[in-house]
């Protein structure tokens, strides 16, 4: 791959040492990797290609560490009813499970492709992808196989809800998930996740499933505290989960546990937006020293968006994050939540995932909500849009 010099960058966010920002900057990429970043007058010569940023801002590609892209159908009517006052419940997941089971592999892959491309157009260069709308051994395996065509970050979420055919037999379903379903799915996934919530899986079930996953070589992440306080965060920290996600409802003990752990708090404000619920308090977490990520939670029920700048704008407007904190959470925060030290920053050695904004400053990402400011996107040094 030809080497590339991006010159004339007004503001370059590297997320490197110091404040992680260089003005009047340049970036050099070779073989898909960042080899140099700094003030433009120090840039080495000799790159085969050159791009002029024209004084605009360059930021790391967004790392969306929480998405549910493998599904069929949508739930627009459910959203419309919710906006007229019907509350959100996890029960809607079963509607999507029925549609997903009825879809062909090609339909599922086509849907993931459409969403992955939509995300890339908005600057996402890495996206995690969960199963969880199949909920049979066969449908979970094919969900993960489909996901694997688009990302290395596949997550087995057989424990999303108890499917209708197991109604009243939750413990039998848990045995299926931690037994044959896990056995069949583990080769296609890196992560294991459980929706730990009233109406989904309780603490004991969550722990049993995650421990079985760990024994199979998967690393845990947990849906915790989305609809109410619960044991999910404590279990996530105890089991060394990479991330506890949603974390809208937290006790002080949960915040302390996160602060003294390696577990990232992944905030998903698209879900609060689309369910008209109170937002998580990012400030409380940041002030306690917790590592925070922002992700889309893209799914057809609670958050049907792939747009990371929108999530950043919500973080700033609704969750007391500074624009700078929101950008870090959407880049290096997501990379930490996926345990990917090669992503989320633009210092030498990083994968060359970066976005040229149609704006002079990254503050514009939150300052100009809904405006498509993502002008050009590179993934591993290759322009993808
Ligand atoms: O993260 N919380 C569980 N899963 C999704 C919602 C899925 C759905 O409503 O279809 C979430 O919000
Ligand atoms: Fe989710």
UniProtKB/TrEMBL annotation:
Cofactor binding comment, as recorded: Binds 1 zinc or iron ion per subunit.
InterPro entries xrefs: Amidohydro-rel, Amidohydro_3, HutI, Metal-dep_hydrolase_composite, Metal_Hydrolase
GO molecular function, one term: iron ion binding
Matching Pfam families: Amidohydro_1, Amidohydro_3
Listed EC numbers: 3.5.2.7
Residue span(s) of domain Amidohydrolase-related: 244-359
Catalysed reactions, as listed in the record: 4-imidazolone-5-propanoate + H2O = N-formimidoyl-L-glutamate
Pathway(s) annotated for this protein in UniProt: Amino-acid degradation; L-histidine degradation into L-glutamate; N-formimidoyl-L-glutamate from L-histidine: step 3/3
Residue intervals of the Amidohydrolase domain: 51-103
Residues that bind 4-imidazolone-5-propanoate: 75, 133, 160, 226, 302
Keywords (A to Z) from UniProt: Cytoplasm, Histidine metabolism, Hydrolase, Iron, Metal-binding, Zinc
Domain of life: Bacteria
Binding of Zn(2+), residues: 66, 68, 223, 297
Cofactor: Zn(2+); Fe(3+)
Binding site for Fe(3+): 66, 68, 223, 297
GO CC term, one of those recorded: cytoplasm
Residue positions binding N-formimidoyl-L-glutamate: 133, 299, 301
Top class in the EC scheme: hydrolase
Location of the protein in the cell: Cytoplasm
Alphabetical GO biological process terms: L-histidine catabolic process to glutamate and formamide; L-histidine catabolic process to glutamate and formate
Membership in a protein family: Belongs to the metallo-dependent hydrolases superfamily. HutI family.
Main function: Catalyzes the hydrolytic cleavage of the carbon-nitrogen bond in imidazolone-5-propanoate to yield N-formimidoyl-L-glutamate. It is the third step in the universal histidine degradation pathway.
Name recorded for this polypeptide: Imidazolonepropionase
Gene: hutI
């Amino acid at each position: 791959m030809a080497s590339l010099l991006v010159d004339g960058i007004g503001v370059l966010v590297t997320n490197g040492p110091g404040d992680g920002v260089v003005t009047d900057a340049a970036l050099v990429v070779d073989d898909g990797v960042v080899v140099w970043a700094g003030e433009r007058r120090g840039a080495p010569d000799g790159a085969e290609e050159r791009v002029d940023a024209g004084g605009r801002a360059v930021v790391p590609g967004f790392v969306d560490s929480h998405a549910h892209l493998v599904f069929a159908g949508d739930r627009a009517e459910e959203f419309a009813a919710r906006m007229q006052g019907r509350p959100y419940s996890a029960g809607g997941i079963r509607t999507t499970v029925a549609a997903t089971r009825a879809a062909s592999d090609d339909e599922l892959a086509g849907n993931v492709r459409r969403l992955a491309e939509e995300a890339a157009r908005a600057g996402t260069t890495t996206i995690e992808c969960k199963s969880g709308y199949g909920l049979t051994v066969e449908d979970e395996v094919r969900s993960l196989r489909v996901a694997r065509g688009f990302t290395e970050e596949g997550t087995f979420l057989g424990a999303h809800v108890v499917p209708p055919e197991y109604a009243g037999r939750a413990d039998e379903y848990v045995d299926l998930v931690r037994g044959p379903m896990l056995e069949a799915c583990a080769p296609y996934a890196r992560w294991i996740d459980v929706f730990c919530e009233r109406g989904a899986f309780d603490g004991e079930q969550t722990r049993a499933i995650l421990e079985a996953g760990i024994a199979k070589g998967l690393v845990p992440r947990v849906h915790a505290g989305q609809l109410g306080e619960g044991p999910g965060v404590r279990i996530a920290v105890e089991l060394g989960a990479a991330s506890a996600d949603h974390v809208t409802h937290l006790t002080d003990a949960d915040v302390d546990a996160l602060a003294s752990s390696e577990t990232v708090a992944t905030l998903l404000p698209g879900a609060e937006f689309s369910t008209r619920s109170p937002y998580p308090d990012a400030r409380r977490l940041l002030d306690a020293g917790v590592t925070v990520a922002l992700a889309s939670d893209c799914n057809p029920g609670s958050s049907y968006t792939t747009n990371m700048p929108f999530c950043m704008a919500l973080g700033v407007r609704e969750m007391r994050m500074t624009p700078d904190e929101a950008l870090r959470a959407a880049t290096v925060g997501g990379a930490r939540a996926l345990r990917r030290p090669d992503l989320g920053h633009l210092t030498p050695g990083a994968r060359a995932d970066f976005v040229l904004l149609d704006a002079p400053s990254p503050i514009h990402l939150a300052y100009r909500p809904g405006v498509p400011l993502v002008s050009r996107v590179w993934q591993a040094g290759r322009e993808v849009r």
